[in-house]
């Protein structure tokens, strides 16, 4: 899991932020949204913090790849604010947002009961705010990010590493 995350961040992250999430912030997110987040998201934001990946739009569009771009993977506080705002705007409350694309659509996990053990990973869904639809985009966060890493290796688009591993 962590190798995929390191490779993804090295290839695409442009945030230059070294602010990482804490266990307390993740617990606060889980309390406010009445959910358990998967270990995959927890590990990502504790190790890397927020990701800003605008070059994924070019990777996807320049190479006609059938993927949604990822603009940001956000820290827990922003995830809480974004999720609550999207719930008010019609996103089903079974979804908890943690990332977005360049058009403002939200990548989500389904809510996990607090009484459940923390899952290692979870399927990633996209809430399309224009159509009010939710679509499965990957069976796990790790596979979701690996898709972009693999796509960058099979295209002629050059991505300059961000220098953060």
Automatic annotation (TrEMBL):
Pfam families: SMI1_KNR4. Residues 21-146 form the Knr4/Smi1-like domain. SUPFAM superfamilies: SMI1/KNR4-like. This is SMI1 / KNR4 family (SUKH-1). It comes from Solimicrobium silvestre.
């Amino acid at each position: 899991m962590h190798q995929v995350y390191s490779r993804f961040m090295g290839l695409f992250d442009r945030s230059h932020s070294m602010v990482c999430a804490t266990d307390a912030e993740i617990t606060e997110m889980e309390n406010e949204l009445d959910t358990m987040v998967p270990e995959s998201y927890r590990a990502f934001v504790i190790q890397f913090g927020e990701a800003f990946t605008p070059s994924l739009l070019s990777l996807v569009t320049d190479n006609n790849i059938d993927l949604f771009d990822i603009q940001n993977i956000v820290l827990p506080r922003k995830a809480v604010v974004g999720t609550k705002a999207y719930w008010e705007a019609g996103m089903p409350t079974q979804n908890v947002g943690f990332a977005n694309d360049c058009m403002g659509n939200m990548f989500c996990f389904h809510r996990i009961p607090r009484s459940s053990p923390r899952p290692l990973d979870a399927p990633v869904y996209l809430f399309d705010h224009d159509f009010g639809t939710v679509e499965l985009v990957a069976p796990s966060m790790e596979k979701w990010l690996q898709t972009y890493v693999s796509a960058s290796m099979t295209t002629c688009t050059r991505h300059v590493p961000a220098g953060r591993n």
